[in-house]
Amino acid sequence: MKNRLNNRLGLGGWLGGGRYGVDRYAYAFHRLTGLGILAYFIMHIFVTGMRVGGQEEWERTMAFFNAPVFKAGEFLVFLAFIFHAVNGIRLVIVELACGIGRPHVPAYPYTNSTMRQRPFVVAVMILAALLMITGGVDFYFMLN
Amino acid sequence: MSDSKAAPTVVFEVLRFHPEKDKAPYLQQYSVPVTRGMTVLEGLTWIKEHIDSTLVWRSSCRMGICGSCGMFINGVPRLACNNQISHLHSDRISVKPLPNFEIIRDLVPDLESLFDRHRSVKPYLIRKDSHEQHHPVGEYFQSHQELINYIQFAYCIKCGLCLAACPTAATSDKFIGPQSLTQAWRYTIDSRDEGAGERAEQLYSSHGVYRCHFAGTCSQVCPKGVDPALAIQLAKKEAFVRAFGIRKQRRAARVAPPVENWVRNRDIPAPPTPTIEKSRA
Q: Could you tell me the CA-to-CA distances from B239 to A39, A96, B232, B244 in Å, in that order?
């Protein structure tokens, strides 16, 4: 008799950081921001496609998207892009096995590759925060 | 933990499910008196002995070797025998079966999917000369560094904690998973092995190493320090350097010829005289 209960975590397990470390949250944010940027890209193609409808259509569309809510949304896309780009560089580095250590005979207390690349995660957060602040100042105070 | 020093207690919140009686799993609470050094497994044993004999889980060695008692304890996959209640720093202990595996009953996960994946990566030495492998005439050469390249990954006890913690495995049952990918790499990098090509089909398939995006939790929860994330990234790096021709294909270790004219090292004492007659079979 095969009477088993499915216990796969599904999307909750994919996006939830749970009680794991900061790296798991970076993983979840990387995926979320990637999807956000993809959604923006599709919308962006659609919006710029309005230009085909002539100048009036284009100016009407631009006027609609000049509302503060869309400007805030655009800034969110910018934040997502910054995190995704900087964290993506970290992932390229660690997925080429740089900065995560070499195989060794495990001895308690165990260390692991996740712990060894933690300085990269801290660097990503600092660099992303600096770029976000700089971008925010530029976005809200200098462009106008 | 309770304030009372005489009888500190914790509440075990255990997920229960009987496939023939219950339509859905439910949580059941038990109050357990905690003694110094008491592990989660001992807490469950206390419940079974004193409160509820119907509680079911799987365990064997009680010392973190067999990998049977993997459970989802306070939101993290852990071995129940390897974790003391006091180290969890909570007066409520949530105990559930390992996620990403089907539940057989109560805290017993069905690890068959793990073993199927493990078998699929051919976790054994493959030699082109299979006759020599099955009728050995000597040992294979292997340096200390060649041993270090894989020995860490050979410590795997197949407990399934890494697969329970993996976010990719949470959504895909086709993902080979950190345990099996690590074992594929363990044999691929073994200097005695010649089966890298056979394992590459699995290792670099669309459900292989490239589905890993370094959440790192497999390595964090591993109770033996195996570090599956390291093995997976090393496999990715290997594919990269091979694609660019940076590293040439290595030759598998040769069989060492029998040693002749050997002289015993005087610093090493001779073995004791055999107490039984050597078998002639």
A: 32, 10, 11, 9
Q: Note whether B233 contacts A113, CB cutoff 8 Å.
A: yes
Query: Does residue A1 fall inside a structural domain?
Result: no
Q: pLDDT tens digit string along B253-277? A: 998 888 888 888 889 998 888 888 7
Question: What domains are there in chain B, each with its CATH number?
Answer: 9-109 (3.10.20.30), 112-243 (1.10.1060.10)
| Complex ipTM value | 0.91
Q: Which domain holds residue A103?
A: 22-142
In a domain, A12, yes or no: no
Task: Name the residue facing A97 among B155, B215, B234 (closest C-beta).
Answer: B234
Q: Which residues of B touch A96 (CB under 8 A)?
A: 233, 236-237, 240
**What is the average per-residue pLDDT within B172-183?**
96
Chain A residues with CB under 8 Å of B151 CB are 103, 105
| CA–CA gap between residue B174 and residue B180 (Å, rounded) | 12
Q: Which residues of A touch B233 (CB under 8 A)?
A: 94-97, 100, 113
Task: Kindly report the CATH number assigned to the domain that includes residue A96.
Answer: 1.20.1300.10
Q: Does any CB of chain B come closer than 8 Å to the CB of residue A68?
A: no
| Number of domains chain A is built from | 1
User: Which positions in chain A touch B231 (Cβ < 8 Å)?
Assistant: 103
Residue A51 lies in a domain: yes
| Separation in Å, CA of B96 to nearest CA in chain A | 10
How far apart are the C-alpha atoms of B198 and B130, rounded to whole Å? Answer: 15
pLDDT in tens, B183-224: 999 999 999 999 999 999 999 999 999 999 999 999 999 999
Q: Which two tokens stand for residue A144?
A: 């106008």
Nearest chain A CA: its distance from B39 CA (Å): 18
- Helix, strand or coil, per DSSP, at residue B137: coil
Is A81 domain-assigned?
Answer: yes
Alpha helix segments (H runs only) across B79-227: 112-120, 130-134, 144-151, 161-165, 167-171, 178-188, 196-203, 217-221
